[in-house]
Description:
By secondary structure, this protein is mainly alpha-helical. The protein has a single domain (about 55-270), classed as MetI-like fold (Orthogonal Bundle). The chain is built from twelve helices and no strands. Helix 5 (about 60-95) crosses helix 8 and helix 8 crosses helix 10. It is flat and about 75 Å long.
Amino acid sequence: MTATTANPSARRLSKRQQQRIIRGGLYVLFVAAVAGLLAVADWETIQRNFFNTELAREMFPDVLTIAARNTLLYTFLAFSFGLVFGLLLALMRLSSVAPYRWLATVYIEIFRGLPALLTIFLVGIGIPIAFGTRWPTLVTITLGLGIVAAAYMAETIRAGIEGVPKGQMEAARSLGMSYTRAMISIIIPQGFRIIIPPLTNELVLLIKDTSLLFVIGTTPATKELTKFGRDLLNLNANATPLIIVGAVYLMITIPLTQLVRVLERRNARSR
């Protein structure tokens, strides 16, 4: 009798070999599924309805000079408003005056809990109807998106400020600085260095949230990317505009998400 026959456990595969076999089976399954999908797909219909080159050419340069430009403009305005207002709310949350803390907490909880679309409805349609007035389009857009962004940024900024070692404030006060001066010149700048990655994420979310602005009505000159693509979809009964608009969104957001990763790694090394 051989040693292999005498010891059945010797014929068993090691755990590593089993994992390799399972992994190889998953790869084969994936390749087979992709090959099957490629074989049964109606590529002519897909090309005609999703990648119509003639329709895609007609979208340029308007998709960039009007839709993408408006998307970036609305994002910039809402982000700027949200950043300034969010900083104010964060300082109120950290204030020793209780009513300020309560007010900021209530605001943050309400507008973080409400859907952004509902807030845009409220600012763009509800308030003008209630007070019989109409704001300029850019004001409506800035407030509609910025009010929600401020609530999220406030918590991010507060976390950044609280992340600065308390010894920084104590050292500044020992040098004769007032609390306000120490916050402005030492604590807040250090806090912002900590929160640059999450703020960049908020910027990416705002870019995508501009797609909600269609509810307040737009003109041909004020369309953002999603509204621009949706109108062409309805006009041509073809999904190519959505593919082009999606590609433009990715051209904007992917570099920003890569920037977030770089900043996160840099912050991790600095710590």
